[in-house]
Amino acid sequence: GKDGYRHYMEKELHEHPLVIGQTLQRMVDPASRRVILPELPFNLAEVPRAVITACGSAFFAGMIGRYWLEEIARLPVDIDVASEMRYRNPPLTEGSLGLLISQSGETADTLAALRSLREKAIHIVSVLNVEHSTMARESDVVLGTVAGPEISVASTKAFTAQLTVLACLTIATARARGKLDTLAEEHLVSALLDLPSRAAEVFNQTDAIRAMAQVVVEARDVLYLGRGSMFPVAMEGALKLKEISYIHAEAYAAGEMKHGPISLIDRTVPIVATVPSNALFEKTLSNLQEAKARGGRLLVFTDTKGAERVSAIAEQMVVLPHVHDFVAPILQTIPVQMLAYEVAVLKGTDVDQPRNLAKSVTVE
Ligand code: F6R
C-alpha cells in the first residue's frame, strides 16, 4: 500500500535515501570501503570506449554517467536515446563497453538497441531494476539497482539508484584504467556513503518546494536550466513536470539560453534552475541574472554554500546540504522530482497514472 502517503509517487520519493543506501550496500565492500563489481567477462582496463543508451529518465541518468566516466575515468563516451542510437548506425569499436539503463528491463527501444550493439561485438552491461527481465537475460553483466518495485508511472527512486550504480561503475573503471589512486577513491566512496543521510535532509525543504509549486502551477510554460552534470538534472525535472502535471517544460543548458530561448522569457515563464556551488556556479548565476533582467522569475535549487549568492537574485530558493561535486547531481534530483509532484497535486491530476502513459513501454 501507500503507507499513508497520498500517492505511490510520494511514497517512492521518500524512499530515495533507503534505495541509495541499499544500492551502495550491494556495490561497496563495508570493510575495505572499496567498490566491488561482479565478475566481468572482459577486462575493464582494456575497454576503448563506452556507448550509453536508454530512454526517458534512464537516458538522463546515462547523461550524468557520461560526465562521470569522461571526467573521472577519462573514458570516451558516446550517448544517445535508444530509439535514435539504433538507426544512427554509428561506427563502433569492437570490445567497447555498451551501457544500457532501464528500470523495467522491458523497454522495446532499449532492448532493440541492446541487440544491435550485441551484433557489433560490444560488451553489454545493463543497469536494471527488474533483474529477471528480458534485457537481463540478454546482457553479459547485470548491475542491479536495489530500488524495489516502482509503482508510480513516473520514475523517481529508480533514477537515483541508477545514478548510484553508475557512480560506482565510474570509480571501478577509473581505478582499472589507472586514473584514481587509493586516496582519491576513498574520497569519492565517502561522498557516496554519506549520501543517504544528506538525501534524508532534503525532506526538511518540503515547505519551500511547495511554495515554488504555487508559482509553477500557474504557468503554461516553464524553463529548466543547469550546466554540466546539472543539465541532465534539469532535463529530468522538465520531463517529470510535463509527464504528471501536463505543464509544458523545456530544459536547456544554461549557457545555451542566450542562443534562443531567452526570447521566451517574461513574467509568465518561470525559470527553474539547479545551481549548487561548484566550478560552474558563477557562470550559471550570470545566466540567471540575464533571465531576471528580462523579467524572468527565478526558482532556484542550491546548497548551503551557494545560498547567500542565490538569495540575492532568486524569488524563491530551496537550500540543500553541501556535498562533494561528484554526488551533487544525485542529491539535486530529489527536490526537482518533488517539485513536479507537488505541482501535479495542486493541479489534481492522476499523479500515479498520468494520461497516455504506461509503466513499461513495450512498443517501438
Ligand atoms: C519518466 C519515465 C520514463 C522511463 C522510460 C524508460 O518518469 O518513467 O521516461 O524512464 O520509459 O523506462 P525504463 O527505465 O523501464 O526502460
UniProtKB/TrEMBL annotation:
Gene Ontology CC, one term: cytosol
UniProt entry tagged with the keyword NADP: no
Enzyme's top EC category: transferase
Keywords: Aminotransferase, Cytoplasm, Glutamine amidotransferase, Repeat, Transferase
Chief place where the protein resides: cytoplasm
Domain of life: Bacteria
Gene Ontology MF annotations: carbohydrate derivative binding; glutamine-fructose-6-phosphate transaminase (isomerizing) activity
GO biological process terms on file: carbohydrate metabolic process; fructose 6-phosphate metabolic process; protein N-linked glycosylation; UDP-N-acetylglucosamine metabolic process
Protein's job: Catalyzes the first step in hexosamine metabolism, converting fructose-6P into glucosamine-6P using glutamine as a nitrogen source.
Subunit details: Homodimer.
Protein name listed in UniProt: Glutamine--fructose-6-phosphate aminotransferase [isomerizing]
Part of the intact protein present: 244 to 607 of 607
